[in-house]
Design brief:
This is MFS transporter. It comes from Mesorhizobium onobrychidis. The chain crosses the membrane at residues 12-33, 39-61. Keywords: Membrane, Transmembrane, Transmembrane helix. This protein is an alpha+beta fold and 111 residues long. The chain is 47% helix and 13% strand. The chain is built from two helices and three strands. Strands 1-3-2 form a three-stranded antiparallel β-sheet, with no helix packed on it. The longest helix is centred in the first third of the chain and has 30 residues, at 8-37. The model has no long low-confidence stretch (mean pLDDT 83).
Amino acid sequence: MLGILANRIYRHLFAAQVIALIGTGLATVALGLGVTFGLSATFVILACIAGAALFTALLVWPASDPEVLEHQHRGLPEHDPHWAEGSDHFGHRHAHAFVIDKLHPEWPREP
């Protein structure tokens, strides 16, 4: 069922639809609260929700979130220009600022 999300275009369309759905849901809640409780009370309620979300994010986010990660590339030729990025090129491992891209399709699992 989720196999269609392997296609990059469908994945982006799905993400856009989810974002639009969340946005319209938030707007509907805000309008409903505004009609029911008034705009001042709605502002306070939504500010409390935003504060709770920020507090939760600060608790959940890892204290150590390094930008530069050591990782490995199996099957990447030694002459590939990617090896010039970063530092500490040891065999098939090196370290640099990590981003998800064509050469790094997922977050490294090993330390």
